[in-house]
């Protein structure tokens, strides 16, 4: 359990964090994943926090030596030491599906980091609220209205995907969206599978799907360049135009291949997370009538203040305070991302333990979200936790924190609120399977996709 620093001049000996490394090769990956498959991803974390240390414990995940940093102090440490002591790290499967996430495109990644906040900051997003409202209206009209029952999860996936296609690349045609959505499912599965690139494996299907979508996106990018030059496309119509027209400080533009890859990453990162959040909003509102009533009241006041056909705008969103508190409570109890990895870029000490360079470090939303120390009665659904000053710093982290905090956070907030508006304005509903199991693989979702019975409001 002792770790000898090997670099010349750093001969000190430190104690590694307590914990066990599990089975040869797979380590504790199976236990880590299987608590999620059984619907309790926090169990892996809490069992080890109580057995070894509430601050940090050692394990072995995704074929790597790893340490899990726990509590708000662990989150704060990892979020605040980006590029000082730690850097982002993704499992090998992600690097293989997105080859440009390797060293070759470090420069592009930095460019992307600067570019995204400009597009996703509130002032830029404001002009897309009306478009989001229109797409959401269309989604509910085609997929929900006139149905007595629906299975929610496939619908929320179609919703967030259609919205992303429109806002990121102006793909509007439902047939075109439907053609792209199928390969996307294979990519999402491949990203967190064992990276076995053999014919017939899910991993190979994911790589093929990513290549297919990249080719489609490249064709769209080439056409867009022509349309922009001819004045047939607008420089502000979507994120694609924004990427094509934004140069770095040396006047250099992003390359087509990198733009395709980044949009692919945004489509993947954006739609599965938000669709998981939306399905849990439907679930909790079905289970908690008094919470539903609060959201309904708020949304109807906004709906009734609008002229016929008038679209939602930014001001309306700022009035949806209770609805957003409800959404935050959903994100606390069912965070779409359970956590993420970093890599130690140097040897360092944390909480009295040595962390060797190269170790993979994991922060977990659940180590605070479901911890009674930070959220009393953690299983209780209580949106008032988000009133006033809200939760203590680094305890509520569904979007991460620090320099790598989710750049799509505001976009997600808008799409979730617009979704809630259309949902409660139209329906009340009840779950068809009252005790439907939850599976976390890797996003949480109800095992049968959440079938519900819809009760449209009388006109
Ligand atoms: C409810 C919805 C969402 C949740 C819960 C969520 C959560 C997260 C989290 C926790 C991270 C940080 C991972 C880390 O620490 O390494 C992250 C990163 C990221 N998210 Fe989101 N996200 C959501 C929606 C979106 C959307 C809509 C987009 C795109 C429009 C997006 C794009 C990204 C990207 C590009 C990153 C990587 C940032 C980086 O590595 O610097 N996310 N997201």
Describe this structure in words.
With 459 residues, the protein is α+β, with helices and mostly antiparallel strands. The chain has a single domain, classed as Cytochrome p450, CATH 1.10.630.10. The chain has 17 helices and 14 strands. The protein has helices spanning 29-37, 41-51, 71-80, 92-97, 106-120, 122-125, 129-143, 152-169, 174-191, 202-229, 239-245, 256-287, 289-304, 314-318, 321-333, 366-369, 409-426; strands at residues 2-4, 13-15, 56-61, 64-69, 86-88, 149-151, 339-344, 348-350, 353-355, 360-364, 427-431, 438-440, 444-446, 451-456. The strands form five sheets. A five-stranded mixed sheet has the order 3-4-10-7-5. Strands 6-14-11 form a three-stranded antiparallel sheet. It is globular. The model is unreliable at 1-12 and 101-105 (pLDDT under 50). Protoporphyrin IX containing FE is lined by residues 88, 113, 265-266, 269-270, 273-274, 277, 336-337, 340, 398-400, 404, 406-408, 411-412. Residues 88, 113, 265-266, 269-270, 273-274, 277, 336-337, 340, 398-400, 404, 406-408, 411-412 line the site of protoporphyrin IX containing FE (HEM). It comes from Platycodon grandiflorus. Belongs to the cytochrome P450 family.
